[in-house]
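user: Here is a favour to ask of a fellow structure person. I have my own habits and do not want them to colour yours. Could you put it straight underneath, so I can go through it closely?

assistant:
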Amino acid sequence: MRRTILLSFAFVLSFTAFAAAQPADAQRFLQERNTTVMRVMERPASEARDAELTRMLGELLDYEELSRRALARHWGEHSEAERAEFVGILKQLVERSYRSNLQRTLRYEIRYESSEVQGEDVLVKTEARNRSNRRAPAVSIDYVVARRGSAWRIVDITVDDGMSMVDNYRNQFERILRREGWEGLMTRMRGRLTEESAT
């Protein structure tokens, strides 16, 4: 009996220590990966640089989980093939948006403020301040990251306490699905991808 109690107590302690380490691990992962990506962004544009960025962002962002959260209740309504096409298109749109934001943040100094458990995820809070204009207000960028095996992946981002990326997509998708259905949504997303490719 005593041995069982001691084992249970040891398990609780180890679990508590593991849970406490999660935010620090998530913040460290995000900081290291973002720093590496920013260094690549600073290189002159080339096909090799773009290919490397695509690979690195694929290891940083969880596109499938982001898609699942953005579709919410509609995710389970569709076939594996339909979901795969959806994820593939959204991946390209998110990647382009993320790259564009990274390009802008090259002018900013990023500070990692804090990290905390948020349900099954970890919320990492950062602050971006313009290097050339110190009087400009800082911009808050909050990342929601989730554990994936031995690594972490970004599953949502909120800028300046506004609507998160997932919430923004979810609201858009919900409106289109209500009016135009699945095919209408996919047609719009394909069109958006073509428009962005042409610019």
